[in-house]
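Here is this case:
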Amino acid sequence: MTKKVHALPPAVRDAQKLANEVFDGLAETDNNHAENANVIKHTAQVFAIASKILLKIVEEKKASHHTLGNKMSIFEALGYHKDHRKVTKVTQLVKHFDEVSEIHKNKTWLGQIKKDGVCSITTIISGVVRIFSRTGREFTNTRYIKFDISQLNMPDGVYMGELCCSFVSLEVLSGIVNPNRVNPVPKDFLYVPGMLEMYWFDRVNLESFIVGKCNEEYVGRHTLLSQDLMYAPTSFPRIEVLSCKLLCGDKDIEDFKNDAIEQGEEGIIVRDPKADWEAGHKGWRVMKKVRGVDYDLRCIGFEEGTGKYTGKVANLIFHWKDGLTIKAMLGKGWTHQMASDMYLDTSTPNTPIGKIFQVYALEESSKGKLRLPKVGELRFDKDHSDV
């Protein structure tokens, strides 16, 4: 039986051909051109390495070809029904620190930087990497970061983290990886999928994730996760485990938060070092303190702009506490084109009405109103508002 040979892509063939030509030229280089020979040799080595990398990518694509275009929920990927758990109980959730009862706060905490990214759940099963949203839907445009993660040879498990990109706003990033995305990435942002960053902060084994409970203390889970990444056979600067800082009392927490915000971060995460992991729990196990305040609210209406903003959404209207409403203008990251597209969507099934958006503000007043509220990202990974 004749062995089937797969043709190499042109980029790989050209790189290998050029490398061979350079090496052949070296054999004819005389001793009077030793310096040039070294330069040529280095160039040839670069091309040779490039060809190996491209070939590895091709092999990876072939190995995963059967899964391309066949997105599934996180539970389906684990061999269970897609509705194994409610979308609100796929993973452990985060609560505002100030909303947690004081009875849980008189203790020592672990603090972490809160990255301004998209909540992600990474599954690793026998080397196959998938990345899902908070509600268990598979992200789009994550091929490159998944390939990098696969090279780490990390143990099987479910890894919780933040998917980020330092070069675009959160609104743009959220749109590019949106599980519902069907359109190609805009040409101005074609570089984004190759520049994604992953910041892990927790991990549980597959069995614990399936049952929704892990009894191991957080400090132990985090230590093992950090060690596994530290001793991985390779490393990538865009994949890391967020470090922890010991916090003793309210002053430590407030100082740590202020330092993080001054460095341009969104805020901090405060964790109970002895906490177990429970899917769907939102409370004392994991809390956040961020710059200003932010809520995930349901849009119930919109306002069109006037003048040069005609044909664009100027404000979204949200359901708020005690039956009240909040009007918020589109915030940083929302371009004029995006505002125009949103206005056109208001008469289609893709209308913003009924969807959940992040709404952030400087503060919440004593009367319960938000000061200078702005619309942040579309929370495609959430089905319920915070109020």
